[in-house]
Amino acid sequence: MNNHIRDIEQFIDRMNDDWLNDRTENLSRYFHKQVVMIQPGTQKKIVGREAMVDSYQEFIEEADVSDFRIKDLRIDVFENTAIVLYTFRIKYKVETTNYDEGGVEILVLNLHNEHWQIVWRNQQPDIDV
Question: What Pfam families is this protein classified in (predicted)?
């Protein structure tokens, strides 16, 4: 169990490092081919690995991220399933507008062929992060 938690912590670190450093070609490995994301503040879904990677690419192209931090990382593992919850703070600029936002990210991971993959993702804004 502790090995799974350590693996998932590294998984989260690598994934965030990849998107923060514009290595979107690496992102598909983190997502199941049928991953679902509920878009923040809506009930709309992003479905599928390609659409998920495209959403990261769109954000990277629009925003200049100056800071991204995770805190309060919590991981619960149940055999081949893991629930990951953490709070985050992100500072970025789009055109001439600066943003300083926080939120909560919830991920459901599945262990598939000895590799963790995100099968479900949700972000909730949190003004008190």
Answer: DUF4440 (PF14534)
